[in-house]
Write a structure and sequence with these properties.
With 461 residues, this protein is an all-alpha fold. It contains 18 helices and no strands. It is globular, with a radius of gyration of 21 Å.
Length: 461
């Protein structure tokens, strides 16, 4: 079986000479823990929505609307961590330990400062933001929104620090470590949710507090691990508390376009959230539950993206663009294969998942339709619009990824969502279709860019 799989994923076009530091065993050693980690996170997300559903559809709706806002900040912290991971990976490829450690330390510096500012702003302005975006929702939904957002805002610094530490370990290819930390974090979260929802009957707060506590646990553990000098790269406290302009700008050169891309992507989702909020509680709940299952179905593309950064980044840092090209083609073939198989499996299991939710028959029907649409596109198209784009970023080609994402997500998806959802009266089904069209166009643009080869001449370090 393994030999058949290797033949399927092996690119027809090889490269002469150069380096090949990542054999199949080392690639799977990175990929499998990331798949397990993403699967666990998706299962926990599914468990969250299942438990919250027993607190009522108003609570489910409020939490799902809040998540759209909360995720904007998660994306900002992730963008800095990812930008730093690209820089660290390239320094690892060039065997420059001093600059690797400096880059690692500055990721912590930037993310901590950014997260504290974001936390303060949202604690002061969160209620006003919710009123402006979701003023038309039912009072019970707005109450759940306010409670959840105030609590999870406190987790911003922890989330930022955890992402910084996880990005360093993934840059080194030590994905087993991040997997075990994630397992512990999610167990804390699930246990806390069960207590908060079923024992304390705290509704939205019963889900928000465990999320916040689990992030602080993970942040503490990852920071302690990153201080180990035996690692290929480590956190240096003196360098983390000071500002190094050149290295910070180098990281931000990669992180800012990614942050803009992800931030605008989530802002578009928030704008669509205001659209969904006007469609009624059933559609809001269906969208919230659907997004949880979507994250479960999309785990292959999400899990493989950090592997592209580690592998392509180290190859480019070593000055071997041919090796980076070879691995991006190989990883893309693998991602497509795994994504198709996984999304098919999720669709097969969907009829067994839906009865677990304490929601109306109409909401279940909507969830089934939008998950079906999502999984078709996630299996066939998303591997080219997400992981391959991560490979281009690892080579330093970040502006193109930003421009294509702005056009596809902010312009195309948002416009199509309003047309399909409102004008054609398709509701959340139309929004799901618009998402699939967005991915398809972006995948085509990324493939054209990759085949054009301009990424080969990009410089990061």
């Amino acid at each position: 079986m393994s030999s058949v799989l290797e033949k399927i994923i092996e690119p027809k076009k090889q490269f002469a000479g150069g380096i090949r530091p990542f054999d199949n065993a080392s690639l799977w050693a990175m990929i499998i823990p990331l798949l397990i980690e993403q699967l666990l996170q998706a299962v926990v997300g599914l468990a969250d929505t299942l438990m919250v559903s027993y607190a009522g559809e108003a609570t489910v709706s409020g939490v799902s609307l809040d998540t759209m806002i909360y995720t904007i900040f998660i994306y900002l912290f992730t963008a800095v961590a990812t930008g730093g991971a690209v820089v660290v990976s390239q320094y690892l490829g060039s065997a420059d330990r001093e600059n690797s450690d400096l880059a690692a330390s500055q990721i912590f510096h930037i993310n901590t400062a950014l997260s504290v500012v974001c936390m303060i702003v949202m604690l002061l302005l969160g209620d006003a933001v919710l009123s402006g975006l979701y003023g038309s929702v039912e009072p019970a939904v707005m109450d759940a929104c306010r409670i959840y957002l105030r609590i999870v805002t406190l987790s911003f610094p922890a989330n930022a620090v955890y992402n910084a530490g996880a990005s360093l370990y993934r840059s080194m290819g030590k994905t087993r470590t991040t997997m075990f930390v994630s397992i512990a974090m999610n167990l804390i979260n699930v246990a806390g949710n069960a207590i908060g929802v079923f024992v304390l009957r705290a509704g939205a707060a019963g889900v928000a507090w465990p999320t916040t506590v689990s992030w602080y646990f993970a942040a503490f553990v990852m920071t302690a691990l990153c201080l180990r000098e035996s690692n290929d790269v480590c956190l240096r406290p003196k360098k983390a508390v000071s500002f190094h302009k050149t290295m910070t700008l180098r990281i931000l050169k990669i992180a800012v376009p990614g942050g803009i891309e992800n931030g605008l992507f989530q802002l578009a989702k928030v704008a669509l959230g205001s659209l969904i909020a006007a469609l009624g509680t059933a559609q809001i709940a269906a969208n919230g539950i659907g997004q949880t299952i979507w994250s479960f179905a999309a785990l292959v593309s999400v899990a493989l993206s950090p592997v592209y950064i580690t592998v392509a980044g180290q190859c480019m840092g070593a000055g071997d663009a041919d090796a980076a090209d070879y691995y991006m083609r190989k990883l893309t073939r693998l991602t497509v294969l795994l994504a198709v198989l996984w999304n098919a499996a999720v669709l097969i299991l969907l009829p067994a998942i839906l009865p677990l939710y304490d929601i109306t028959a109409e909401t279940k029907r909507l969830v089934f339709i939008i998950v079906l649409i999502h999984n078709i596109f996630a299996g066939v198209v998303q591997p080219f619009s997400m992981p391959l784009a991560a490979g281009l970023r690892a080579a330093g080609d970040v502006k193109f990824a930003m421009y294509s994402a702005i056009f596809c997500t902010v312009v195309l998806r948002t416009a199509l969502s309003f047309v399909l959802a409102l004008w054609l009266h398709m509701g959340v089904v139309g929004i799901a279709l618009a998402m699939g069209i967005d991915w398809t166009v972006k995948a085509a643009l990324d493939l054209i860019r990759y085949r054009g080869g301009r990424w080969r001449s990009m410089k990061v370090i």
